[in-house]
Amino acid sequence: MELVELCLEQGLSRRQAAAWRRVSVSTVQFWIDRRRAASAEQVADGSWAQDRPSTPKRQPARSSDEVHDKVCRARERTGWGPRLIASELGMSHATVSRCLQRRGLSRRPALEREQVRRFEWPCPGDLLQMDTKQFARFSRPGHAVTGNRFKTSAEKREKVGKQFAHTIIDDHSRLAFTELHDDEQAATVTAFVLRALDFFADHGITARRLQTDNAWAYVHNRSLAQLLADRGIQHRRIPPRTPKRNGKVERYQQTLKREWGLGQTYRDSHARQAALAAWLMHYNTTRNHSSLDNRPPITRVRKQLRHNS
Description:
The chain is α/β, with parallel strands linked by helices and 309 residues long. It folds into 3 domains: 2-49; 65-102; 128-145 and 157-308, Nucleotidyltransferase, domain 5. Helices cover 48% and strands 10% of the residues. A 5-stranded mixed beta sheet has the order 3-2-1-4-5, with helices on both faces. Strand 2 (162-170) and strand 3 form a beta hairpin. Helix 1 (2-8) packs across helix 3 (25-37) and helix 10 runs parallel beside helix 12 (222-231). The N and C termini lie far apart (79 Å).
C-alpha cells in the first residue's frame, strides 16, 4: 500500500519507488495495477492489498469431498499407508496421498504411551536401586568436550579399555553412592554393595530392599545373594527390557555422565576418577534436586532422622 501511495498520490516514479523499497519495478507496477482494478469496497477495507492464494479458483480435476471421505474412512479403519489404500480403493497413489494431506492425515498419529505412574517409597532405605554404567578410558581429552575428532595413527591403535561406574541410590532421599571399577564381575559387585550398605548405614539408613536389573552379576551372584540374606535385605529384579522400573538410578546416571563425566575437561581418565568423590559429595549435600523441592538429597535423610528420633 505504501508503494502505491508514493506513486499515485505523491507522484513518485516507479523506478524511484522501487529503489526506495529495494524491490523490482515490475513489483511496483503489479501492486499499482491491482489497486486500480480493485472495487470501492476493496479499497475501503484494504482487502485488495492482502496476499491471495496461488490456488486456481476452479479445479475441475480435484477430487470431490466424497472421495476424500472415502479415503479417510479407509485410513481410520485400517491404518494403512497411501499405497495399500490406493490398491484397495482402485485409486492412484498420488490421489490418495493428496487426500490424506488435505485432511491432515498424511502422517500416522503417534502411539499412545503408557501413562506415567510416579511412585516413591515413604522412608529412606525402603528401596535401593542399583545399576552399572560404562565409561571409556582415555589418555587425552576426547572429542565430546573438545569437538576435535582427529586422531593420530598411534592414538587409533591405542586400546585404553573401559571403566564401570557402580551406583546405588536411595529411592526416597536420592542419596547416591558411586564407585569406579575396572570390571563388573561378581566379586567386584559384592564388595561394592558391602561398602554401599556401610555408607548408607553411616547416614542412618537401614536397607530393606535392593532392586536391580537382570544382569548376570546381580542375578547369578551367590556371594551377593548371601550378603543380602545375612543383612535381611530383599533382592527385587525388574522385568526384562523395563529400565524405567529402575528409573531413579537411570536418571542419576544421566546426571553423572553430563555433570561429572563430561562436565569439565580432564587430562586423562585418572584425573576424571580422582574428581568423582568431590562431585559425589556435591551431589548429595549441595546440588539441588528438582523432585525434592530444589533441595539436596541429604536434607531428606536428616528430616527423616529427626522424625524417627
